[in-house]
Design goal:
- The protein is of the alpha/beta class.
- 46% of the residues lie in helices and 14% in strands.
- Helix 1 runs parallel beside helix 2 and helix 6 packs across helix 7.
- The structure holds nicotinamide-adenine-dinucleotide (NAD).
- The site of nicotinamide-adenine-dinucleotide (NAD) has 31 residues, from helix 1, helix 4 and helix 6.
Length: 264
């Protein structure tokens, strides 16, 4: 039997209150890690931490806006003062919106960049000195299939997710000498709150105005070779694997979890 053993590991998961981040937090805890669930939504993060504690794990919630440098530094300092080390960082917090490029104003552009790219930058900057000092660490960045190939309605979002893969590849090379693995996962289509919002936004467009949300959803499903959406747990499984020593020789990679939608 192959088991993933994260006993004694300290993990930070950003955007851990919902969806993929919630599933990753719970699965990392089930594998033995102590998990700091951070999110801009403190109540949601606390509910996830409570769920972890109820099942015998150790979960802590911290209110963090990943685009805010002071928040990120406070998150890292609080984690270190409580646990003394940080072994795993999952950069999952992200925002999306179905919007045509021509309708994307500068404020929306900056929102995408601030959360999806600046957030990853700030969290890596804050955690890496400690991982370098301890000579080990695992970073998993949540990109997207939109970071593999861009589509209409997701132009700037895609650009941010391409950036996450670029950060992952370069950082993996710089961090290899410190025994730090840096990888990305690229989820396909996962019906979280994020996708519920996308369906509502798509419905207001000319292209989808005659369809209801379920019909729009079904159209997206027909594009997936395996003809099914991905579950948050599918993405969490890959995150747990990449956070473990089973993946000690995997670095700089971006793993598509999309039922075959993107071949690379
Ligand atoms: N759902 C999908 O189909 C899908 C596909 C590809 C990639 N992704 C990526 O997966 C990640 C998680 O997506 P999800 O579907 O679980 O979304 P979600 O909206 O369900 O959850 C995202 C979480 O991030 C938090 N968050 C947002 N802004 C934040 C900030 N500034 N600081 C801290 N936390 C913040 C939210 O409060 C929320 O709890 C995102 O990076 C997203 O781009 C999702």
């Amino acid at each position: 039997m192959v088991t993933v053993d994260l006993e004694g590991k300290i993990a930070i998961v950003t955007g851990g209150a919902n969806g993929i981040g919630k599933a990753a937090s719970i699965k990392l805890a089930k594998a033995g890690a102590q998990v700091v669930v951070c999110d801009i939504n403190y109540e949601g993060a606390e509910a996830v931490a409570e769920e972890i504690r109820k099942t015998g794990g150790n979960g802590r919630a911290v209110k963090t806006d990943v685009s805010n440098e002071d928040d990120v530094n406070a998150l890292v300092n609080q984690t270190l003062s409580e646990f003394n080390h940080i072994d795993i960082l999952v950069n999952n917090a992200g925002v999306s919106r179905a919007i045509k490029f021509i309708d994307t104003d500068l404020a929306q552009f900056e929102k995408f960049l601030n959360v999806n790219v600046r957030g990853v930058f700030l969290c890596c900057q804050a955690v890496l000195p400690h991982m370098i000092r301890q000579n080990h660490g695992k970073i998993v960045n949540v990109s997207s299939i939109a970071g593999r190939e861009a589509d209409e309605f997701f132009v700037v979002y895609s650009a941010t997710k391409f950036a996450v893969i670029g950060l992952t590849q370069g950082l993996a090379k710089e961090m290899a000498e410190y025994n730090i693995n840096v990888n990305a996962v690229c989820p396909g289509i996962v019906r979280t709150e994020l996708w519920e919002n996308l369906l509502r936004q798509l419905k207001t467009s000319n292209e989808y105005q005659n369809l209801d949300n379920e019909q729009i959803w079904d159209q997206f499903m027909t594009t997936i070779p395996m003809r099914r959406s991905q579950e948050p747990e599918d993405i969490a499984n890959a995150i747990v694997f990449l956070s473990s020593d089973l993946a000690k020789n995997i670095t700089g990679q971006a793993l598509n979890i999309c039922g075959g939608l993107r071949p690379r």
